[in-house]
Amino acid sequence: MTNSLTALFGGTFDPIHYGHLLPAIALAKEIRLSHVSLLPNHIPPHKAQPEATTNQRVEMIKLAIENDPILSIDMREITKSILDRPSYTIETLQAWRVENGASPGLAFILGQDSLLSLPTWNNWQTLLNYCHLLICRRPGYAETTNDQALKEWITQHQTKNIDDLHRHANGFIYFANTPLEDISATEIRDKISQKQSCESLLPPKVWQYIQQHHLYGA
Ligand code: ATP
Question: Where does the record place the Cytidyltransferase-like domain (predicted)?
């Protein structure tokens, strides 16, 4: 079985935390990925604009992954952001296919909360034409949905067979057995603004960076 499946983990990472890192590392192990690329967006389409600058979010990701060979950073959404418009995942995936062709495997990683919000994404039902979706569990978010279209779409494309992800370039949804990490960037920003410590929620160098740059009211 190959290890050539590219996995992109998109997000705002404002800031990056163990709720991103630990599931990503566990997922890589679970489905035999040689690495996972964190894909920071410049302008998130579905949420409030980040508090840290794009450059600061990128710096924090670099600090978080510097000693982990499984993790890397993919700057494509930052680079294209000169257009100053939202980073739509579907456009990123299409651009990746133009660059790499139809044959290589591509997977996009989502937390369970993001899966549930998928019907608000641009052209969400065509995402699987370009990639697989790998879903990480997240505390507080239901495993089922009342959205009928989403529910049917998941049933139609779900696989429990890891080999499907390696044998096909795109088209499957896989629910991973990743660890539950009850951490969110919102909670971290709120705690820091109230002068509470978040040392245990993110890597030490990211915590130091936040202090040094007085981010989130530190
Ligand atoms: P915020 O609190 O600002 O909304 P966040 O903590 O949800 O941020 P994002 O950068 O928006 O982090 O998330 C990027 C991706 O990581 C999304 O797919 C999200 O579902 C996933 N994710 C974030 N935190 C967790 C977590 N604790 N467990 C599993 N997945 C997570």
Answer: 8-190
